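Incident log, support desk, overnight shift.

02:14 A customer reports that sequence design results differ from what the structure should imply. Their input is reproduced verbatim below. On-call engineer (initials T.W.) acknowledged and began investigating.
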């Protein structure tokens, strides 16, 4: 893993120690490193080219699932047991009401389209999450702690983007941060990697705590602020260690450091000016960082903006759990829903609104689709613990920028936000909409492990919210 250290940590030592070298060299024992992925990737010739200027996607995946009733689809006239005890606020869009805690977002709804009748009909985090991230239902449905593997090995949205788009910069085409989505107990959801496309198409997983200035990136270990001459010294180390591969007794320790073309490409990727600039959040200044919120999610959103600005087509930002916090710090509010929303929404509201405003200020919003979504919604009635449980039959997502009509509301739920009443949208339709905004034809073919051609998507774009 590449540890992009804080400036303080980086200043402790200029040399690469034997321990560091062995650490990097032994990465192969724990999975494919970036050079191996690059080697497996092969040539990129023949991929479909975009027909217009390229767009990017920032996908905000909100682990646990915020309640639609307290966010995008409040029902102020419903019975108290369904309505809950939170109010609503007006927005910049006439007639559109949203949850009272979304104060900053309310000012931006003329840039946002809301889809109020999304549906998976799956109430299991990992299975419904698989459906939302791949566009294909989990087999069987309603399976919690679902394991990856056939038949549930469809590639994630990021993996497809990485597979079919031409590279735009030295950085990977798809990045996930600050960690994978997982259930309590560490059960990582299926549908977040490349599945049957193979590891070469895996999105680049960046485990990080950007609010603390620490990053881990597959491939190498380097601090963010090492000057160019010292990078040259590190590159010399790669050359030296690569020569050790010639002797059989050294292969187990340094095989992953072979100074072949793929190692060099990995080195150049992560030490490129674009990468170093993207990771350097301190260059934003205190006011800009405060605008997003000095939280893991907020600073991850800021990093996502910087990665898109550097040319990355798709960045997925996952909401993460907080140990020992109520509901583990995420949106799975089985108890004390009101308390949970009041605690979590200021973090989300700040980061989401700052991201949209920042992209707009930089002239990037029209070329960047920002997606707010989760694995499902929450139950229409409050339970005995004051919470809302899992609910796949109806929930809301939001789209902003990137070719979307701001101020639009598509679909409607019933009086309890329990079931779609009009304009139902399925996960495959969400994927089709995202592909449309990226300029990728939804009938683009990929191939499974048997070499059979498969269309990347069988849904229909939600044209009512597209420009």
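02:41 Re-run completed on a clean worker. Output:
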């Amino acid at each position: 893993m590449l540890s992009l250290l804080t400036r303080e940590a980086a200043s402790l030592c200029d040399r690469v120690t034997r321990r560091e070298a062995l650490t990097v060299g032994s990465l192969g024992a724990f999975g494919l490193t970036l050079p191996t992925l690059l080697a497996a990737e092969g040539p990129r010739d023949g991929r479909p080219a975009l027909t217009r200027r390229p767009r990017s996607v920032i996908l905000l995946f909100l682990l646990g699932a915020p309640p639609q009733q307290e966010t995008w689809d409040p029902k102020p006239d419903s019975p108290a047991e369904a309505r809950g005890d939170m109010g609503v606020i007006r927005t910049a869009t006439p007639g559109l009401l949203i949850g009272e805690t979304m104060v900053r977002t309310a000012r931006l709804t003329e840039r946002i389209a809301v889809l109020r009748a999304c549906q998976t009909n799956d109430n299991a985090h990992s299975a419904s999450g698989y459906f939302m991230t791949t566009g294909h239902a989990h087999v069987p449905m309603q399976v919690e702690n679902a394991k990856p593997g056939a038949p549930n090995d469809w590639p994630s949205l990021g993996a497809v983007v990485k597979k079919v788009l031409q590279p735009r910069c030295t950085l990977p085409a798809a990045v996930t941060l600050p960690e994978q989505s997982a259930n309590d107990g560490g059960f990582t959801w299926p549908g977040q990697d490349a599945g049957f496309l193979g590891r070469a198409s895996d999105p680049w997983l960046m485990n990080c705590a950007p609010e603390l200035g620490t990053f881990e990136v597959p491939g190498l270990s380097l601090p963010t602020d090492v000057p160019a001459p010292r990078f040259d010294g590190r590159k010399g180390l790669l050359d030296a260690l690569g020569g050790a591969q010639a002797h059989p007794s050294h292969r187990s320790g340094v095989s992953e450091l072979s100074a072949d073309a793929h190692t060099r490409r990995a080195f150049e990727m992560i030490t490129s000016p674009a990468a170093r600039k993207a990771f350097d959040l301190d260059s934003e200044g205190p006011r800009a960082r405060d605008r997003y919120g000095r939280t893991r999610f907020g600073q991850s959103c800021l990093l996502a903006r910087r990665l898109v600005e550097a040319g990355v087509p798709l960045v997925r930002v996952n909401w993460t759990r907080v140990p020992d916090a109520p509901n583990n710090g995420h949106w799975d509010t089985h108890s004390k829903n009101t308390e949970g929303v009041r605690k979590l929404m200021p973090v989300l509201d700040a980061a989401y609104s700052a991201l949209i405003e920042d992209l707009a200020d930089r002239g990037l919003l029209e070329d960047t689709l920002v997606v707010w979504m989760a694995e499902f919604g929450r139950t229409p009635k409050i339970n005995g613990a004051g919470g809302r449980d899992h609910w796949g039959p109806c929930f809301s997502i939001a789209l902003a920028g990137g070719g979307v009509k701001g101020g639009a509301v598509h679909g409607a739920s019933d009086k309890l936000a329990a079931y779609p009443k009009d304009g139902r949208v399925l996960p495959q339709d969400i994927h089709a909409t995202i592909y449309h905004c990226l300029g990728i034809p939804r009938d683009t073919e990929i191939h499974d492990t048997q070499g059979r051609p498969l269309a990347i998507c069988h849904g229909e774009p939600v044209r009512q919210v597209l420009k």
